[in-house]
């Protein structure tokens, strides 16, 4: 059994990668002989790398067209991302290996998979490498490096995309999307929330991932003007949005609305809600499903989130409403006949949920065989010694959704 694990994650590109990592660490901690070292992959490129990671929030809030362009570049020309990342992180990554001496590397961010595997190949370092995909449907080819020992998929849809990208089925393992224990601890509680009671105000939660974006104010006004409800809004790290929401809503609706910034107790807000309105962020959606809150998907980032609304509707975990003008009719329909449709969504979520996914992933990882002592280079060659190899020795091509390396 492997007992010294390096996880490559990200702290600033949304909150999903960090949340997934935390869900795994909770289960790894059940094994006292297992050591886990987590690194923000962007930090391996120094301050410049961290600045790139931190750009995620402002770009996804204010420049969605730029985000779409970045996604399309990573999809059509992944080699540009791989070569840049490989050159940027090589020295610090090799130093990290010498310090941590991992038995296994687990990546939960697409930008580092091929780059790390290239570096391991360059120095003949034989360490098992696993990828855990953090998207549900619309995955980038950067997730699907066929050299990984295994790629852990959160859905059948993500597995099929990996097959299209040229990954062998024997290297794909469908387990599910892990969520943190605090979103699951209510399951065994004797005081679990009952179905919606039409004699009480409808408890509504509006959120949009850790960065806070979307038509939150417009959605809130539609709800408050047309239904007997109480609205909670989570603006995330977007402090400007939080202040604007407070100014525009508190004076008009008083204590019928509450606005929160980034909160570590989002599960409490979910568990006290009858319905949640959110962007198609996979992490937020799966946490809401774990809390058994029917979802209204109000939008999604271009690229990586495009398939998520349809995925939720396919499994009857929520409703898609990208046009605010349709919201009033959709909510009225959900509440008709003693909230029949709303309660059917809740039942579908209960059937869909597997609360043991994080543990199953951890058990699978720990079941990997240790490959013995790892030989690391005594000195790291200068970058110019490898520049020719980086430039011409690797090429990533995509042909009809198939990707090959070298």
Please give a quick description of this structure.
The protein has 406 residues and is α/β, with parallel strands linked by helices. It has helices spanning 16-28, 46-62, 64-76, 78-100, 113-122, 156-164, 216-226, 239-253, 266-271, 282-290, 308-314, 327-352, 357-366, 383-392, and strands spanning 4-9, 35-40, 104-107, 129-132, 150-153, 172-174, 202-207, 229-234, 257-260, 275-279, 295-299, 318-320, 396-399, 402-405.
Could you characterize the architecture of this molecule?
The chain has 406 residues and is of the alpha/beta class. The chain has two domains: 228 residues, Rossmann fold, CATH 3.40.50; 168 residues, Rossmann fold (3-Layer(aba) Sandwich). Helix content is 44%, strand content 16%. The chain has 14 helices and 14 strands. The strands form three sheets. A six-stranded parallel β-sheet has the order 2-1-3-4-5-6, with helices on both faces. The longest helix has 26 residues. The radius of gyration is 22 Å and the shape is globular. It starts with a strand and ends with a strand. The relative contact order is 0.15. The C terminus is likely disordered.
